[in-house]
Each structure stands twice: as C-alpha cells, then as structure tokens.
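=== Structure Prediction Worksheet ===
Name of assembly: unnamed complex
Input type: mixed (protein and possibly other molecules)
Chain count: two
Listed entries:
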Amino acid sequence: MTRRRLALVGAVLLVAACVERLTAPGHCPGDFCPSGQITVVDTLLTTAINRDSSYRGYVLAHQSALMLAAHLPGATDTLDGRPIFRINGIGSHFSISTVDTSRGPILGADSARLQLYIVRRDTATHNLRLQLYRLPITIDSSTTFADVTGPFTDSLVRNINIDTLLAQPGRKDTVTGDSVVVDTVNHRLLLSLKLDTTAARYVGTDSGSVAYGIRIAADTLASIAFGKGTFGPVLQWYLRVDSLGMPVARKPGTLGAPLASFVFAPPAAPVDSTLAVGGVPSARSLLRVAFPKAIRDSSQVIRATLFLVPAVAARGAPADSFVIEARTVFADFGGKSPVDLRLGDTTIIHIGSTDTVKIEVTNLLQVWAADSTHPTVLVLRPESEAQFFGEIRFYPSVAAAFRPTLQVTFVRRFPFGVP
Amino acid sequence: MTHRIGGIIAVLLVAPALTGRAMAAAQDSQFGIRGLGTPGRWESVRSRSTGGAFAPFDPLSPLMEAPLADIGQLTATAAGGTSHRDVQEGGTTTALRTTRFPVMGVAGPVAPRLTVAAGFTTYLDKSWDVSFRDSFLLRGVMQRYTDEITSDGSVADVRLAVAGRVSRRIAIGVGLHVLAGSTRNTAQRRFDDSTFNPVQQSAEVRYDGLGVSGSVLIGLAPGLSLSGWARSDTRLRAKVADTTSAVTDLPTMVGGGLLFAPSPSVRFAASTAWRSWSRAGAGAFDTWTWSAGAEFGSRRMPIRLGARRGQMPFSLGTEAPTETAASLGTGRAFAQGRALIDLGLERLERRGGGLTERVWTVLVGLTVRP
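=== Predicted Assembly ===
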C-alpha cells in the first residue's frame, strides 16, 4: 500500500519536472491578446512645484575638497581665485643625532621643496603661469580676499611657467630645480618647486611656520584646482642646525598644510527670489512638489523630468562646466533638511548657457510613490559643492511663465482580473 | 475502508500541492487568452483516448456522476499530460510546451447502492504568455516597446459527487461543484529608449464560483446504454486584493452519450455536449462538441481510438473557433487489476481568426484500486 502511494506521488513529481515554454508572439490589439492593455499617460505638471527657495553657505571655501585658482576677466569684473595655505613649522630646535635626544637650535634653512598637486586643469589653456606669494602665517579659515591683497602685491617669491616646465627634457628645470610629474591615469600634475633661502625663510620665532598664496595667469581660460588633504601642499625643509657651534645639515620629515583654502573675488551674490545652485559658498534650492495622489497611489512612474529655466546665464569659469544634482530629503526642515543620499539624478551645467535645464528625476518620484511618508521635496545642489565657481539661477515658481515644471510619464494600474 | 479513502485523498491532494501545478489545465490555447480561459476536458486518459466519447460512461471521468454507481470498490485516479503545441499566425510558427495534471479523484462505495466521489479537474485554464512589439508617440517621439503579458494558473472544479442505482437499469448521480483557483498575472513593457523605465506590474487574481450537476445512466438493453447530464454554474467572481474585479456568468451545459458493446471485447461510444458560453458576455459563443470512439480488446490491455470535433467559446470574430482531434491509446492492468496505467496520444487542431494551433499531447493516467 505504502509503495503504491509513493509510486503515485513519484509519478506525479516526475511529470511535473518537465520544462514549460509558454511565451507566444501576439498581434495586439487582436483576437489573441488580453483584453487589458498597458496604458501610458504623459502629463505636464505646471503648477505642482511651489514654495521653492534658495539657501547659501553649505560648504565654505576652507571646507572644499579643492583649492580653486582662477583669473578670468569678465565684462564687468574679473573672477580671481587664489589658493592660500599655511604649513606649520617644527619649532626652533631640531634633533642633531639620531642615536640620542640631543637637540640644537635651528639656524635657518638652506632651501625647501614645495609639492603641489594640480588636480584639474584645462589642457586648452596655454602659457599657464603660477605666482607664489608669501603670506602672513596668521591666515585662517576666515581670511578674505581683501585681507591678503597686500601680500599678494608685494610678497612674490617665485614665478613658474607650467607649460615651459612641461616642455623641459625629463620635465625638470635644471636651472630652477623645479620639476613636474604627469599622472595621465588620474589626470593630475605633481609640481615640485625648489624654494631658495629667500623664498623659504625659516623663522624660528614663528616656529618655522610659513604661509603661501598662489595666483595664476594664462593666455586664456586660467582656471585650475589644487588638491587638498592627501593631495595637498607638502613642504620639505633642508635645515641648518647648530651642533655645539658647528652648523650641520638636517632634513626633517615632510610637512602638510593644516590650513588650505582659497580666497576669491568678486564674492558670490546674495540669494534672492531665484533658485540659486552652486557657487562658493555653495547654494542649494528646495522645491516642494504637490505630487498628485492619482499618480502616487495607483500608477507606476516610468519617467519624470524636471524642467528648469535659467533666470540668467550660468556663471563661472568658462571651461568648468559643473554638475548639479536633484535629491530628496528625509524631512522638510527648509534649508536644514537632511538630504537623502541614496538616490540622485544629475545634469551638466555649461557656463554661459541659458538653455532650459532638464533633470531626469524618475527614481526620486518612484521613491515618493512607494513611500507615501516620504516628503515630496526636491533639493538642487552641486554634485561637488564649492569645488567650482560655477553657479546657476533658475526662475522660481512665482514666475508664472518660467516656473519649474515636472513632466511625468506613468502607467495606470493594469486591469488584472478582467476577462 | 474510511482510513483507506482518507489516505488516498491525502495523496491525491498533497501531491498537487508539492508540484504547484495541479490546478492547471490539460491544455492551454491562444484561444483562451481573450475571454475567461480555455475550458478544461473532464475526461480520464481512457476517455480522452477515445476522443471523449466514453466520458459519459466512465466513472473516473468527472463529466458525469451516474457511472460512479458501478465503480464497485475504492478507486483513485490521476492523469498528467504534456503538450507540444505549434501556434501558427501570420506566417509565424511558435513552438510551445506545457505539462498539466487535468484530473485527480477518488471514489468508492459507502453503502450497498451509494457511491461517493471527490476530486478535482480543470474548469478553466488561464496559463498563457504573450509577447509583442509595437510603438506609439510619446513626448513627441515614436517610442518602440516590447510588451509581455502573462497569466499563470487556472480555475479548478472541485467536485463532491454522489451516485447510486435506483434500479437494475437506471443509475443517477448528482454533484456539487466548487470553482476555485488563482492566477499570477504580470504585465511588462520594455522601451527601446532606456530613459523610460520598464513597466512591471503584477497581481494575484483569485476566482470563485459554484455549480451543481446531475446525470442519469440508462441501460436500454444488454450492451446498449444511454446517458444524459446537465450542469449549471452560477458565476465566476474574480478578485484582486480582495476587490471584485469582474463577475462573469457561467454556462449551463447539457450532454449525453450512447454506448454500444456488441461483445465484451468491443465497445463503441458517441457523445455530444452543448454549453451556453455566450452568457459570459461579448466575444463568447455557445459551443457544441461531438465525439465518437471505440475500445477493443480485454480490459487488461485494450486498444482505444476516437475522434472529436467541437468549438472553442471565445473569439473576437463572428464565429467560434473550431477544434478537431484524433486520439488513440491503450492501457495495462497490473496486480490483478488493482493498478492500471493508461497511455494516450492526441493530435489536436484548432482554427479561428487566422490562427491555427496544432497540438501533440501525450497522456499518462494512473488508477489504483487498493
């Protein structure tokens, strides 16, 4: 009896193991297609975005991941960005021997070598020149362009022509001692600048701290960025230390720059009724969206596009197109809304362009449709905040003719269960 | 006896649950995509091998209840079939394949003149998968896309039947039918332009309904029997997420058959049935089916053959699609007749609306009489 039952079950399972192949071509609509069809609706939500506003000050110059340098004459003013950095010294004394703790006063420096990474540059820029200035060691994160106008006028210590240096055999200048290494993989230049006693003065009373500023110039499009942190300025001192009346040469470890920032002029214009995105300090805009329930509750969003009309041409260094992104927030606290970093959509802003900007925000609206508790707020911000001078301003919702709009393509619920 | 019945019922009900396919139909068809589905065949492998002609006289075919009166002992049966189907439309032929378990049941006498049976068969098969390409104007651009709409599942007819002999010549039976089932439906669209996200929607549709049936089997003379049956189902209710999406009237059905056995080793049968599928709404037609078949040889290893012609109930055209089939089969009894294996082969052709389906179906039936 048990064997028969097992045989029966076995036979059933054996046949069930067969592979199915059901997919057949259809000619729809027609006889051999389901009565229900996928219905796609495309709608332009012209009044769905309201209560939009802009805020500035999210990332300041000293918080930026880069030091921006630019010299771009404009119709009314010149965009002038100047990196500044301070390298703290090693004090007034230094070890004489490596086998004991005896220390001697530092008499001065024979020379120093300063390493700088140029992490962004336009290869179309020609005759790119750097000017290195000595700055007061009192510079800090609050230092402004005006604060260092004087030193940037009278404290020039070196002139370096990058193009000339790159053209040297082995990319080394045997006269000045400068060299450059080209990292073609990461598109970086590593500058190694030799500073003589005049350029690198070791002042014991200042604990050996030094501060420098950089101005750049070029035939056109003078806009580059220097690295910070891992790719920030590094100084190697070559010191003379007093050893019982005898000066001896010593080479301490390399020193990084605890302060690395940049100053610039003119300052960013204050936010107004337009929707500002970008600049330094960085600006963001919040757009509150009245997401229709009909779409949210019973349909599937397959494409959503945010249209933004620039109020003025995008400003910034012409070669430095920048990326802005749209994200949602976890909660709507105005300018302090915590941004949801899980999903974002981006578009590239070209400097000088006044074309309507389109951002595909499909995945953001899908999040709103899936989670009805999610605030329906869009944040527009630069993808790399305070790493470009570029800024764009869009018409706000109060400008009826040019207000931000959403075009949403969605699919209605399929009529399952209908014969 | 009760213990045995319970055990067999358990096997027959648990095995389909393990396979996950037991509720599916013996045959799928493109002609069932539009409408309620493809009506099932309430026939055992033995009956189907004779074109369905023997179904009104076969106690193991869930078409009629009256033949259960002569079943004599506890009997369980199950059937499986694999179909290889070529769908030809507009010069394109697509090869499809399905495996189904259309019939399972158990029956046995509970009193000297009373037999009960329980089991299920396919009422409507709703498994299909359609893919097509098209385009439409969206955001000012012709967007090409591929749609795939699928349905996987069926509506099963769970039957509880009672039959008995009222006289030496007349047997009658009645049945209560509970229609239940579900389908997993999906609708997908993929645009060639990837800026449009793919559409993917799915739902589980649950179905329910009720029906009653009655049948009579009359022995006109030795070797000559006449049968008749009728069935009425209420409506099929479809629910998606506990919301009724459709209520469709189901057909009333009547049919009958004639069996002639001039000798113990030669049996002929013919049957017909009418179903009022037009009640299901627009695009549905009343259907007729006819069949004739024969069985030769001893019951230990007979040879069966038959032919069938009929109509399919659903089409957008002005005429119901037709189907024509020829079949043959055999069987083998083991263990002193306590176990039977039936084998069948069916060639079926359906035509209508410019579409032709040609189907080879291999059938295997297992019957045990513990």
